[in-house]
């Protein structure tokens, strides 16, 4: 008991050594992996219930629009005998990531907590509670623009030709679009977290606004087809708004810290 007290006295800020950080990282990764596997099992069941029908719906809408016209016919094909099984695993894994998002996002924040002071740790739950809805909102945004993207890209096929979408390529595109946008929506929360941790200041955030907007536009251009400018801006605008919202929160935090320092140490600080 005395040894524990002695360690607490010698390390009041609970700083961790490199070895302890690696052990903590391994623990967080293991918990996240277990959560993803459990979510993957649920995703395997949900795929048959409604997920595959939902993924196929944008293509079905294109097919319905083409009926009775001279437009090119469209459909999804499975070129190999194992394609259906492989894609079901892929869908289940992606659903596992989405379903388990509260768990692995918490593990990320929990891993960063030891790097914060005791006063800053109280904000961690607020960051976590904000990151979860933002992640799901990002996934929903990616899903929202998907039908427009499918409709646009299939419209370039010449009349009389057929659009045979390989299932693997189509599923890869859908899943990466949804998850990538979901993760991108969470990044402003980490910007605020780094500000509260004293790593970056609000002034440095706003100074980089041009670079941030360029990166966001390039990211959305990469995530969506180059011809679909509307979907690109539909994704870019909320991400830009979140970036400036993160700056606003960081600005208020820095101003509050400056006022507190001024009251405690005088105007010289």
From TrEMBL:
Record carries keyword Protein biosynthesis: no
Which keywords label this protein?
Cell membrane, Membrane, Protein transport, Translocation, Transmembrane, Transmembrane helix, Transport
Membrane spanning segments where? 29-52, 91-113, 125-146, 173-197, 209-227, 233-252
Topological relation to the membrane, as annotated:
Multi-pass membrane protein
Compartments in which it is found: Cell membrane; Membrane
Q: What is its main location?
A: membrane
- Could you tell me what this protein does? Part of the twin-arginine translocation (Tat) system that transports large folded proteins containing a characteristic twin-arginine motif in their signal peptide across membranes. Together with TatB, TatC is part of a receptor directly interacting with Tat signal peptides.
Quaternary structure, per UniProt, is: The Tat system comprises two distinct complexes: a TatABC complex, containing multiple copies of TatA, TatB and TatC subunits, and a separate TatA complex, containing only TatA subunits. Substrates initially bind to the TatABC complex, which probably triggers association of the separate TatA complex to form the active translocon.
**Record-linked NCBIfam families:** tatC
**What PANTHER family does the record tag this protein with?**
SEC-INDEPENDENT PROTEIN TRANSLOCASE PROTEIN TATC (PTHR30371), SEC-INDEPENDENT PROTEIN TRANSLOCASE PROTEIN TATC, CHLOROPLASTIC-RELATED (PTHR30371:SF0)
This chain belongs to the protein called Sec-independent protein translocase protein TatC
The organism named in the record is Agromyces flavus
């Amino acid at each position: 008991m005395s040894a524990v007290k002695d360690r607490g006295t010698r390390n009041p800020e609970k700083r961790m050594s490199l070895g302890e950080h690696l052990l903590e990282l391994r623990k967080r990764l293991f918990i996240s992996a277990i959560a993803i596997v459990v979510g993957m099992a649920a995703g395997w069941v949900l795929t048959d219930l409604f997920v595959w029908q939902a993924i196929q719906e944008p293509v079905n809408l294109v097919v319905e629009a083409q009926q009775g016209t001279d437009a090119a016919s469209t459909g999804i094909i499975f070129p190999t005998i194992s394609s259906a099984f492989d894609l079901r695993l892929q869908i289940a894994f992606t659903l596992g990531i989405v379903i388990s998002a509260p768990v692995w996002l918490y593990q990320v924040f929990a891993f960063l907590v030891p790097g914060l002071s005791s006063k800053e740790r109280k904000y961690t739950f607020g960051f976590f509670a904000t990151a979860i809805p933002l992640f799901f909102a990002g996934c929903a945004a990616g899903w929202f623009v998907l039908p427009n993207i499918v409709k646009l890209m299939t419209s370039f096929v010449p009349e009389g030709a057929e659009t045979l979408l390989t299932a693997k390529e189509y599923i890869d595109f859908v899943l990466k679009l949804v998850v990538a946008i979901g993760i991108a929506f969470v990044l402003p929360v980490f910007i605020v977290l780094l500000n509260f941790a004293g790593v970056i200041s609000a002034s440095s955030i706003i100074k980089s606004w041009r670079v941030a907007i360029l990166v966001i536009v390039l990211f959305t251009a990469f995530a969506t087809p180059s011809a679909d400018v509307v979907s690109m801006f539909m994704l870019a605008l909320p991400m830009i708004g979140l970036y400036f919202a993160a700056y606003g929160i960081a600005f208020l935090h820095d101003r509050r810290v400056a006022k507190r320092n001024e009251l405690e140490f005088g105007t010289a600080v």
